[in-house]
Q: What sequence folds into this?
């Protein structure tokens, strides 16, 4: 109970972020008040743990709101339900914001760093996330081949590198959703015959300068990779 009270105290200190958070959620057509509360809870927890465990290089909580939470939610329209593995999730990005926004989505938070996994377990517990679980492992070692509709990676590697370590997790016809800055034409050209470029979408993230793109790559059922 003491830990919960401490974390609630930290959350109340973030009330100044609520107007910008609400505006960002409205831009994404996400207007659930409970979602906003949970996202503030997550930010409070992340800020608290980051001081001791160095979970992210972003220190300012306002920057965390823009660069982490809203940036993660910018892809929510392309995710509805099914199973998603978030590779190299770090402190739960984009997996935790997506799990909060999409209760019908089953999210596996894949992370090999022990400190970050301890934070992830506490976040899942504290936020009451029934649709998220933590897998402490390198992506290539996750023994769940062919079990996921989607994999995502926010800042992990080039497209081919993400596929190399995590492509085995996808079902036939499953998709990689990769968050990128500028349109990664060279990375798309590198894709092997086992993978098909599906689409690219320029995302608008409220408060964030610079380009953001979501690149969708589908596994080719005609060339099974598992």
A:
């Amino acid at each position: 109970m003491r830990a919960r009270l401490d974390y609630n105290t930290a959350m109340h200190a973030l009330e100044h972020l609520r107007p910008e958070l609400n505006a960002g959620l409205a831009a994404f057509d996400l207007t659930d008040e409970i979602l906003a509360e949970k996202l503030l809870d997550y930010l409070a927890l992340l800020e608290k743990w980051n001081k001791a465990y160095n979970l992210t290089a972003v220190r300012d909580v306002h920057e965390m709101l823009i660069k982490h939470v809203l940036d993660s939610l910018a892809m929510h329209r392309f995710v509805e339900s099914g199973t998603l593995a978030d590779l190299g999730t770090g402190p739960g990005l984009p997996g935790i914001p997506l799990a909060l926004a999409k209760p019908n989505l089953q999210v596996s938070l894949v992370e090999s760093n022990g400190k970050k996994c301890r934070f992830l377990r506490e976040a899942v517990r504290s936020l009451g996330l029934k649709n998220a679980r933590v897998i402490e492992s390198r992506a290539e070692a996750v023994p769940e081949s062919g079990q996921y509709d989607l994999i995502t990676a926010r800042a992990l590697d080039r497209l081919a590198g993400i596929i190399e370590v995590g492509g085995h997790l996808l079902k036939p016809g499953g998709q990689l959703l990769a968050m990128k800055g500028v349109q990664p034409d060279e990375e798309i050209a590198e894709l092997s015959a086992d993978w098909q470029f599906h689409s690219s979408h320029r995302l608008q993230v409220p408060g964030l300068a610079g380009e953001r793109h979501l690149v969708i790559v589908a596994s080719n059922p005609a060339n099974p990779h598992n």
Q: What stands out?
A: Confidence is low (pLDDT under 50) at residues 1-5.
